[in-house]
Amino acid sequence: MLRELSVKNFALLRELGIEFGEGLNILTGATGAGKSILVGAIGLLLGARAGTHMIRQGASSATVEGVFNISSRKHLLDELNQMGLAPERGLLILKRQVSMKGDSRAYANGSRLTMAQLKKVGDLLVDFHGQHDHQSLLYSAQHRTLLDEYGDLHSLKRQVQADHQRLTLLRQELQDLRQTIQERRERQELFKFQLNDIEAVNPRGDEDQNLAGEKNVLENVEQLFQGVNSAYKSLFEEDNSIIGRLSAIRQTLENLSKIDDVFEERGRQCATLIYQLEDLSTGLRQYAQRLRRDPDRLSEIEDRLAQLQRLKKKYGGSLSAVLGRQKELSLELHSLAMGDERLEQLTEKVSGAQRKFSQACEHLSSAREGVALKLQGLVEKELSRLGMRKARFAVQIERIEDEHGWVQLSGRRFRADACGMDQVEFLLSANPGEGLRPLVKIASGGEISRIMLAMKRILAQADQVPLLIFDEIDVGIGGRVAGAVGQALKTLAESHQVLCITHLHQIACLGDNHFLVHKEQSRGRTETIIKKLSSKDREKEIARMIGGEKITGITLAHAREIVQNRDKPEESIR
Q1: pTM of this prediction?
Q2: Is 329 exposed, middle or buried (0-12, 13-18, 19+ CB in 10 A)?
């Protein structure tokens, strides 16, 4: 609720501090006294367009500040917390300043707000009815929510939301998988070509290094043969060969060992050298025997090395990189085959989730149709009580067919979101002979106000905006209808804080708090004054509303009687 409002230098309001109460707050005053200025100040506070014309003449700026107590409104606390505007002890203090330079600033509990943030907060806190902008029941986007709230369809709606969320996630997963598979398929031919290219050559381990060594040998056969043969002859074949000379030395050492046994060991060492050199010479001879010029083999090796070099150049620079790429390609192609299987499984999951979502939407839609019929009758009954006996009200529920829609029923597809497949709009025919039209197209301000009042009263528990402002809702009504309007406002004030500007005593007498708006002149300047009335002053104001500016004993007695007998029983419309 709006607990306190402070205004400084706004239009004819020089300085104002006013405390509103719970329930029905009534503002009255003579025509032109400035009642709507107060509503304008509240509108500015809640995000209405600002202009320098709003600033009191002679002042450099205008300031409006409001203290809202929302401690009992959990949904509001949650919304504000999500916006980073956590109220302090349940209090939200809004402030708006407009300067002659054209600057406009807004604050919430001292923190700066953007205009978009301020308007969002304003829509959460206050609903204006009259010749103002904030008429939330005129927004067709709100009608589905209000219908669901009135019908207490929370459980069905939560099921739809849960099914929609699961379907959304599965469809996104399916889309991602399809994209991945498509990308892989676009590269599949390339992968197959590369894998076939490598497998056709069939490289092995260190094959390139081994072939390079063999190639080097074949290219140097003559040099190798000459060197090996020369070494063999030096070791074994020549007359003065190394092995022959060592054999002579061994014999000498054996002879010396007969004199001194220390030479036995030396003789054995010499024998070992001879055996080793004999093995060496045998190996050299065998190697030389194997050596031969083989141009065909050399050509074969060169061709093979060229193949391997081509692979290395294309797939990583080394044979190990080529073999690694071969493994990667095999895995990619296997993964593509597995992806097709996963795609089939996920497609079936999406189909199942879509069927479940369609069923949930159908159940919610059926429930909405039942609630709509009940609401239509109640609204028409209430409008009749408010003087619109011939008015017709309807809740239009439509489904939009869409070949790509997520809901499928009886072979038809419908567009749907997390709130279901229904497009809901409230329609009204205010006068006989007129067709039903959307509420937003109704021209008469007085009719709009009464329609809003009827809707608000019936949907009071569903509507979570805490403060409702009705600006001159009494346009074009009087007598019994005025009394009915007043009683409707009184009932509405049981669940909301209501601020009502009125010219009718039938409405004014029902207020829980009564404020008088009037003009005063001081030092050649005119300013609007607003004050809360005591019981005695209230009777005088009601008397003025009954009989005009001249208050008589009769009108005052009548006013006292009206105030004392204002509470009247009323049948429930719920």
Answers
A1: 0.59
A2: buried
**190, 329: one domain:** yes
In angstroms, the CA 92 to CA 1 distance is: 10
At 403, which amino acid appears? E
Indicate whether 193 and 126 sit together in one domain: no
Contacts of 118 (CB under 8 A, 6+ apart): 46, 47, 94, 96, 106, 108
Q: Kindly give the confidence (pLDDT) of every residue in the chain, 574 residues in length, as a single tens digit, with 9 standing for 90 and above.
A: 899 999 999 988 888 899 999 999 999 988 777 788 888 899 899 988 888 888 898 899 999 999 999 888 887 888 888 888 878 888 899 999 999 988 899 998 888 999 999 998 888 888 877 644 445 677 787 889 889 988 989 999 999 999 999 999 999 999 998 888 787 777 778 888 988 999 999 999 889 999 999 899 899 999 999 999 999 999 988 888 999 999 999 999 999 999 999 999 999 999 999 999 999 999 999 998 888 888 898 999 999 999 999 999 999 889 999 999 999 888 877 777 677 788 888 999 999 999 999 999 999 999 999 999 999 999 999 888 888 888 899 999 999 999 999 999 999 999 999 999 999 999 988 888 888 988 877 745 566 667 777 877 787 766 778 888 888 777 666 777 788 888 888 988 888 999 999 888 989 999 999 999 988 887 778 888 899 999 889 989 989 888 877 888 888 888 888 888 776 544 433 3
How many C-beta atoms lie closer than 10 Å to residue 412's C-beta? 12
In this structure, what CATH number is given to the domain that contains residue 73? 3.40.50.300
| Domain count for the chain | 2
